[in-house]
Amino acid sequence: MLVVLAVLADRGCPAWVGGGWGVDALAGHQTRPHRDLDLAIDDASHEPAAIDGLTPLGYQLDTDWRPVRAEFSRPGGHRMDLHPVTFDRAGHGRQHDLTGGWFDYPLGCLTTGSLDGHPIPCLSIDQQIRFHTGYPPRAIDRHDLALLPHLARHHRQ
């Protein structure tokens, strides 16, 4: 993950970790195994630079659901999803969804967590809760949802 974030930053592509790794960044440590890395990237215009940076790392496009998301994999079972988000001048973001609607990224939904002492740009606790609801939860979602209220109480102290 750290290499991917560094490559994207070097290419001028701001990115924030969501999903299970994003919850772990908020917790400050890995809490469960992960199938993939979910990254919200700043605007679809950064997507070509992101893909150019991922290709030398061995990532190949598997599923193209753009403008909603693009799924990549590389040998060894590493998977990553890029979710392009368009931010307006006020800082409110929107990401397309598969039904023609939007996922909202309100002001304040981007923060910084950490893993192994490294700062990790990630989605906020409230944004994680929003993105972990509205669908039948899997076991990993229930795990993440159980952690988030505890993290919220800890962060407010």
Topology overview:
Layout: H1 2-10, E1 15-18, H2 19-27, E2 37-42, H3 47-54, E3 60-65, E4 69-74, E5 78-87, E6 93-96, E7 102-105, E8 110-115, E9 118-123, H4 125-131, H5 139-156
Parallel strand pairs: 2-5
Antiparallel strand pairs: 1-2, 3-4, 4-5, 5-6, 6-7, 8-9
Describe this structure in words.
By secondary structure, the protein is of the alpha+beta class. It has one domain: 2-Layer Sandwich (Beta Polymerase, domain 2), CATH 3.30.460.40. It has helices at 2-10, 19-27, 47-54, 125-131, 139-156; strands at residues 15-18, 37-42, 60-65, 69-74, 78-87, 93-96, 102-105, 110-115, 118-123. The strands form two sheets. Strands 1, 2, 3, 4, 5, 6 and 7 form a seven-stranded mixed beta sheet that branches. Helix 4 (125-131) packs antiparallel against helix 5 (139-156). The longest helix is centred in the last third of the chain and has 18 residues, at 139-156. It is globular and about 40 Å long. The two termini are 29 Å apart. The relative contact order is 0.18. The mean pLDDT is 92.
Strand fraction: 25-35%
Number of domains: 1
CATH class descriptor: Alpha Beta
Uncertain spans: none
Number of helices: 5
What is the N-to-C succession of helices and strands? HEHEHEEEEEEEHH
Helix content: 25-40%
If you consult CATH, what is the topology? Answer: Beta Polymerase, domain 2
Q: What number is the mean pLDDT?
A: 92
